[in-house]
Specification:
It is a single chain. With 723 residues, this protein is of the alpha/beta class. Helices cover 39% and strands 19% of the residues. The chain has 5 domains: 19-195, 3-Layer(aba) Sandwich (Alpha-D-Glucose-1,6-Bisphosphate, Chain A, domain 3), CATH 3.40.120.10; 208-346 and 512-539, Alpha-D-Glucose-1,6-Bisphosphate, subunit A, domain 3 (Alpha-D-Glucose-1,6-Bisphosphate, Chain A, domain 3); 353-486, no CATH class; 545-650, 2-Layer Sandwich (TATA-Binding Protein), CATH 3.30.310; 654-723, Arc Repressor Mutant, subunit A (Orthogonal Bundle). α20 packs antiparallel against α21. The longest helix has 23 residues, at 399-421.
Amino acid sequence: MLLIPKQIVKAPAKKTPLASEFRIQGTDGIRCEVKASYSSEVAGFTPQDAFLKLGFITDEFMELYAYAHVKQLINEGKAQAGDDIVVGWDPRNPRGNFTSAVVKGICKARLNALVLGVVPTPLVPMYMLYKNARGGFMVTASHNPKDQNGIKVFSSFRGLKLLPKNDIALTRDILNLNYSTLSELSIKGKRIDSRREALKLFHQFSLTPKNTWVPPERAKHLFKNITLVVDPANGSLSEIAAEIFRQSGFGKVVEVNAKLNGDVNLKSGVADLEGKTLITADMVQKNTGLFSEHLAITKLFELGRKNRIIITEGKKKVCGAIFDADGDRFYRLEYDASKDTLIVLSGDETAFLQASYLMASDPKRYKGKRYINTVESDLNTAVAVEKLGFRPVLTSVGDKWILLKIAKLIVEERIRKIKKSSGNKPPSSKLLKKWKNMLDKESLDVITFHELETELDFFEKNNKTKKNIALPDENNSFAFAIGSEETGHSITNGSLIREDGYRTPVFFGNGLKSAINTFTATQLLLESKPVRTYFSTLASPFPSGFKQTFYTYYVQKNLFQKNSQIWGRLKKFINEEAKSRGFNLKTTNFAEEPDMLYLSLTSKDGARSAIFIRNSGTENKIGVNLRGSKKDSAKLKSIGQQVIKILLSSMKDPENHLYKLEQDILNQLKGGSVPPDKLKLKKPTGKRVLAEMIRQGLIGLTGKGYATTPLGKWYRSEQNRNC
């Protein structure tokens, strides 16, 4: 029986925490809603308090953040005045006040800003390594709505992102800064326009056979029968991706949603596709269809229906390459003419197809290599890749954790090579002890990693071991194959020739590389298959399990922490409910994300499932995630539906202005359905709230208009009961 507390738990009063106790960063850097520093809504607040107490990023806060990180690099001896920092951005800030603030922060710290302008995220660390720059900033809020912005930070050490210890140190420095003092500093560094050189590098990288996997002898013809609709989500890959696809030999490339006007992710991109496996004809019906205003999806149906006969004959394919605003995520769509539907391939399916191709093309090389994915993935993905011959590895949400595991694999390989090249003589005991301490303590610190590899360099040089094995060789001899997130990040080995002529491997979430690799894999793996087999394989490349996520938006995240009141209550509740349904449970801890509540479930027949609850590191929401076998889907869904009611009744933040807009929409719908043109949405964020209410399952679009769902009606009654 579901027990909903009558008294909604109140969050502690918002105040600035001590810098030593927390970090302001989420899964990947910072991101939230933006307000200009001159806005009346932040008047009287310091940039830090506007962020911490009001939840707004201002241009002044952006400047502080960039300045603090660069000064940190100088203080750590990783940079000095006159060195370079790479900075790029997505187009969500057409006025340029936030991006200019980041450049200003770099230059006030006496370093030069190598400015790339609007570019995809992977180009920032790529160009950083190419130029041997000291760091990189990508100004973006990724898949988040256009009213938000943020910063992703890249380390010069392998392009890793900042880890928790680095975030804590950076947070401390930011909170100790006084903006009035910073504003008086003169600009000493230079702003250097590096866009042309960087884009040339990206094109070269994206078209190199080693990176695309396209056999040179097939380059002119491999993609000629594909009509490709490219959706860059009005973001960083606008014009760039379509041109590279054309140069790659796709028969016809149609680009939509490529406006650089700031409307990123608006009825476009990967975010709206999450959780979908098929898009049916009714979903694009005018006025009532969920995707009726999504240009890429409606264009795919239009082109697919126009070419239905030759698609069923296997002579043409109509596909979609869908990205997010900063270009590091990719979903694939394909029109199935026999069913008049679009097949949706998320990060799980695209990465599995890539893995299948790698293993089929070179089993000796890839057998036993690591396939790293995050907890959001279908649990059956790990089972499927293990059957292929890979070793699956599970990590927390965020491609930074995949990158960390890759870095650890590289160190392990270096130590192994040192032993082998020195007659099985181990490296120094001091060095091995440092490595063991890192593993035992899960030391999540880029600086420590960098120092360890510097010691390995020194040890190799002075012990005359095999020269220059600091990086894995071109043949990917170390134990990594693919890193994947269900949400569309895919990481595979890439090869980059630096400015100094040195070839180096790169590992970044790269939506365009993932797209070309996926199309290469399916063309070469499935080209000889019958048409129906081709489509059935795309629709289900591996036996999928059950996967569903329920969200609650506009929440008081500080309520859900390890061992907090609601954390403990949910753990107890899920334990009781799961056991009553015949599951055995085990709590799994992730050092990368200690506040996540992750419960591993095993049914009586040995089938594995998982229920985990976590605060989003990128948006103001919390989710209950259900993963398991299809036969257990009803049991898991039943538990999830009860948990989301607890979160809805306990986690909402009544002071959040978006929560208030949500209540306004619910009030408009209390009398019944309201046609879309009659619904009053407050600008500028009303449409965003409407979309997020649909994702929460509180409202839906019917033939008569927007209406409250059964969950939405329950939510309203629960609010009235607790008033």
